[in-house]
Specification:
The chain contains five helices and four strands, in the order E-H-H-E-E-H-E-H-H. By secondary structure, the chain is α+β, with helices and mostly antiparallel strands. A hairpin with a 7-residue loop joins strand 2 and strand 3 (about 45-50). The protein starts with a strand and ends with a helix.
């Protein structure tokens, strides 16, 4: 089972097919060329960028952390991470993306 962030960050390329991609990936189907941004699976990093194929594999085993971003390419995923960092810094004065995202999710803004 995959856990999707309520305020999912979506790249321009993926935005056109967002619902279809989320549904497809959630059902365990492959989505080649699509990348997901998740909260880091280890304790020291903030985020991970995975291909959708990796996320499906991890999701089937219950190992996929919450998904916070959906991108149509690796470059687009990097742009989304940059956007998240900028937003976190603007809102909190820190570049702690992970804390910013988890606090926002918990508060239910």
């Amino acid at each position: 089972m995959l856990d999707w962030y309520k305020k999912l960050y979506v790249g321009e390329t993926a935005k056109k097919k967002e619902k279809k991609l989320v549904r497809r990936i959630s059902r365990g189907r492959m989505a080649p060329g699509v990348y997901l941004i998740t909260l880091a699976s280890n304790g020291r990093d903030q985020l991970d960028i995975l291909s959708a194929v990796q996320a499906v594999w991890r999701g089937k085993r219950g190992l996929c952390p919450p998904i916070v971003g959906l991108a149509g390419s690796y470059g687009e995923a990097l742009e989304l991470v940059e956007q998240m960092a900028r937003e976190a810094f603007d809102q909190t004065g820190r570049a702690d993306i992970r804390s910013y995202l988890t606090e926002w999710e918990e508060e239910g803004k």
